[in-house]
Design a protein that fits this description.
about 300 residues; alpha/beta; Metallo-beta-lactamase, Chain A; six-stranded mixed sheet; 11 helices
């Protein structure tokens, strides 16, 4: 779907469901994809491009916000099919894209036996096709200038990208997730932060949000899922959620069971939805997010206690 001047969102059908994750196509002199999902997303990217009369051979740039598999797990597979593209990423992400051995091992620790079914193969990207983008570096796509911003808090290898033409901010997972009706089955949109392991740090998230909001982006383009306009609304729901999550974190110890964290997170989400006028909704569409966010909060508590933040 076209969102505004030359920016399209292609649904990646993550986990076989619509509205879960998307890639953004920037139509310009040098067409660009932002976040490409897992290897299982590739057929949906190909199909989406075909509706616009394009193929992967037309793609000049692939931008990865961070290396979590729902954003970059399919980067190697896609780059093999996009021979004219170069890939841009955070400096900390380069090694893991070129040699995904540790990336896969870390993902197995989080997803276990579900890994292959969820994400498919994780293939390397040829080193000569990867460009490391430092904080403040820029890439031109023609009528747009993309500015890369170091945005830790969700992950140390995370960057957000500000595009110059419409001041849209591609947020990856830094400015929350946007749960839409075609994914949840609800009749409203709901926003939450995402705190998946293993780098989540609420204090760092707060500083990153301050920096990004000061840039006054017009629209926030979430990988999960779609645009928030005005962008200030995305900052608002992300900050609200982080403060709610802090109240959970401060009651935890390093030995707290994961089941307790999940219980507290479910209670928070239900209370937040009630406050927003939605007292009785089925939370099952958020099951994976609740699991991952709970893991991330507990890992943060454990790392803080061990002095490893």
């Amino acid at each position: 779907m076209e969102l505004e001047d030359g920016i399209h969102c292609l649904d990646l059908w993550e986990d076989g469901r619509p509205g879960r994750a998307g890639t953004y196509l920037l139509l310009d002199d040098e067409p660009t994809l932002v976040d490409v999902g897992s290897s299982r997303s590739l057929p949906h990217i190909v199909e989406g491009l075909a509706t616009l009369g394009m193929t992967l051979k037309d793609i000049a740039h692939v931008v990865i916000t961070h290396i979590h598999l729902d954003h970059a797990g399919g980067a190697g597979t896609l780059m093999m099919a996009a021979p004219n593209a170069v890939l841009h990423c955070h400096p900390r992400a380069v090694h893991h894209l070129v040699d995904p051995t540790r990336l896969r091992a870390g993902a197995e620790a989080v997803y276990g036996a579900r890994l292959d079914a969820l994400f498919g193969p994780i293939r390397p990207v040829a080193a000569e096709r990867v460009r490391s983008q430092e904080d403040g570096s820029t890439v031109s796509t023609g009528s747009r200038r993309l500015t890369f911003l170091d945005t830790p808090g969700h992950a140390k290898h995370h960057c957000c990208i500000l595009e110059s033409k419409g001041r849209g901010l591609f947020t990856g997972d830094t400015v929350g997730e946007r749960f839409v009706p075609c994914f949840t089955g609800w009749n409203f949109v709901y926003g939450l932060p995402t705190t998946s392991p293993s780098d989540f740090d609420p204090d760092v998230v707060g500083r990153t949000l301050d920096r990004l909001e000061a840039l006054a982006p017009r629209t926030a383009y979430h990988t999960h899922f779609g645009p928030t306009f005005p962008a200030v609304d995305a900052f608002r729901f992300t900050r609200r959620g982080i403060e709610g999550f802090r109240s959970i974190i401060e009651d935890l110890t390093p030995s707290s069971p994961l089941s307790l964290v999940k219980e507290r997170l479910v209670d928070y989400i239900r209370a937040d939805l009630k406050r927003l006028g939605h007292p009785a909704v089925d939370l099952s569409p958020l099951a994976l997010d609740i699991d991952l966010n709970s893991q991330g909060m507990l890992v943060y508590v454990q790392k803080r206690a061990a002095g490893k933040l």
